[in-house]
């Protein structure tokens, strides 16, 4: 029983990272009806920014806000440079644009920086643990769960209690009607991308603390897991994004724990099969999202 509880605790820590990324993916989908496969580039750009600061002697007290700020600015810049020009295009054009941004950013780092990884020191407490009733809690996992909870509450507060949040919700419900009522599309979408970048930046802090690595593909796997978590929970539903992320993390940890060592490498494949089975019975995910038109 203690071993199972330990695995659940570890799964929540991993799932918290996925949930933070899924929150940003779900937020953009809610406004633009687009699955943003360029969302992971916020992590990639932040990784290189943090590496650059580390080289000049910056501590993690500086790296953490720098990572978050870099992710926010990158998200807004990507929207301004790429997505604003294809908002009224087909879903396929939007999808191609998101993939295009991903490959352009990755190629830029390969060409102008290096295809090799760049490593920097992780914070000293990253491997620290605390024990309670025989259960070992990694401090970083506790921090991730706390950050995910605060991020969800903050995001809901922004959407429910602020003028920009109400505009985002109105746009997600019916963009044409919202525009007739005075909602400015450019402003709403830019705020949504800034908020998604903030969530990606918080996730990037923990991803980079764990890995201590900057690479052209640093954001690829986190992005794929975040998109998958958003799909599991129900695209456009923030609570669903958190549920999907935590569930994905739990399933991965349980599979690693109980599968024979010989097939450990098949964890990702098994996860996708399980998700495919879920979509047979729940095509819209665990929580169904209301449909709306994209601007």
Task: Note the gap between the termini.
Answer: 51 Å
Helical percentage: over 70%
Arrangement of strands in the largest sheet: 1-4
Largest sheet: 2 strands, antiparallel
Count of the domains: 1
Q: Please give the radius of gyration in angstroms.
A: 19 Å
CATH topology: ABC transporter involved in vitamin B12 uptake, BtuC
Helical stretch count? 11
Q: Care to count the β-strands?
A: 4
The secondary-structure element order is HHHHEEEHHHHEHHH
Assigned CATH class: Mainly Alpha
Low-confidence stretches: 291-295
Shape: globular
**Average pLDDT for all residues:** 85
Q: Based on helices, strands and strand pairing, what is the structural class? A: mainly alpha
CATH architecture: Orthogonal Bundle
Report the portion of residues in β strands.
Answer: under 5%
Written description of the protein model:
The strands form two sheets. A two-stranded antiparallel sheet has the order 1-4. It has a two-stranded antiparallel sheet with strand order 2-3. The longest helix has 31 residues, at 2-32. The chain has one domain (2-116, 133-281): Orthogonal Bundle (ABC transporter involved in vitamin B12 uptake, BtuC). It contains eleven helices and four strands, in the order H-H-H-H-E-E-E-H-H-H-H-E-H-H-H. The model is unreliable at 291-295 (pLDDT under 50). By secondary structure, the protein is mainly alpha-helical.
């Amino acid at each position: 029983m203690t071993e199972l509880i330990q695995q659940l605790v570890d799964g929540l820590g991993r799932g918290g990272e996925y949930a933070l990324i899924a929150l940003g993916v779900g937020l953009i989908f809610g406004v633009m009806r687009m699955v943003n496969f360029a969302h992971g580039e916020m992590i990639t750009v932040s990784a290189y920014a943090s590496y650059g600061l580390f080289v000049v002697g910056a501590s993690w007290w500086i790296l953490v806000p720098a990572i978050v700020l870099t992710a926010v600015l990158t998200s807004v810049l990507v929207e301004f440079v790429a997505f604003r020009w294809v908002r009224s295009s087909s879903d396929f054009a939007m999808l191609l644009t998101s993939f295009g941004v991903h490959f352009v950013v990755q190629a830029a780092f390969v060409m102008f920086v290096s295809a090799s990884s760049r490593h920097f020191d992780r914070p000293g407490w990253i491997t620290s643990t605390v024990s309670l009733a025989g259960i070992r809690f990694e401090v970083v996992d506790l921090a991730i769960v706390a950050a995910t909870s605060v991020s969800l509450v903050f995001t809901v507060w922004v959407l429910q209690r602020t003028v920009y949040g109400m505009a985002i919700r109105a746009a997600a419900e019916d963009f044409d009607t919202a525009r007739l009522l005075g909602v400015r599309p450019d402003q709403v979408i830019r705020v949504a991308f800034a908020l998604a970048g903030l969530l990606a930046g918080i996730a990037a802090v923990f991803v980079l603390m764990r890995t201590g690595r900057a690479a052209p593909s640093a954001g690829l796997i986190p992005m794929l897991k975040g998109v998958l978590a958003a799909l599991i929970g129900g695209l456009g539903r923030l609570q669903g994004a958190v549920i999907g992320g935590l569930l994905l993390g739990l399933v991965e940890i349980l599979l690693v724990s109980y599968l024979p060592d010989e097939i450990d490498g098949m964890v990702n494949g098994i996860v996708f099969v399980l998700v495919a089975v879920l979509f047979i019975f729940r095509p819209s995910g665990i929580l169904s999202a209301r449909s709306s038109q994209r601007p």
